[in-house]
Structures are given as structure tokens and as C-alpha cells.
Specification:
With about 70 residues, the protein is an all-alpha fold. It contains one helix and no strands. The longest helix has about 70 residues. The N and C termini lie far apart (about 100 Å). The mean pLDDT is about 70.
């Protein structure tokens, strides 16, 4: 075998290794972003619920003031 041919084979195996590594990194990033998205959605939902409860309380207190006034 010539030196060029050996180098080509080495480069090919390195390329395959890099492809596999980048694929696994991509999968890890997808999983991480998915879990982050879920936690953010939960926080937003909880925040939305608390705001709705506060709004209900405000409406009740305003209506009581109007009727009493």
C-alpha cells in the first residue's frame, strides 16, 4: 500500500468517528432542550394559574366595593 492510500483510510475512519460523535452530541442536546422546554412550560402554566387566581380575587374585591359603596 502507498502512503496516500493509508492516509485516505485513516481519514475515512476519523470521519466516521466524528460523524458518530456529532450524532450522539446532537441527540444529547435534543434531549436536554426537550427537558428544558418541559420545565419552562410547567413554570409558565403555574404562573398563569396563579395570575388567574389573583385576577379572580381582584374582581371579587372590586365588585364588593362597588356594591357596598
Amino acid at each position: 500500500m502507498t502512503k496516500k492510500f493509508v492516509r485516505l483510510e485513516e481519514n475515512a475512519t476519523l470521519g466516521e468517528k466524528r460523524k458518530k460523535e456529532s450524532a450522539t452530541l446532537g441527540e444529547k442536546r435534543k434531549k436536554e432542550s426537550a427537558t428544558l422546554g418541559k420545565s419552562v412550560k410547567k413554570k409558565v402554566r403555574l404562573w398563569g394559574k396563579s395570575v388567574k387566581k389573583k385576577m379572580r380575587f381582584c374582581k371579587v374585591s372590586i365588585s364588593k366595593k362597588r356594591s357596598g359603596g
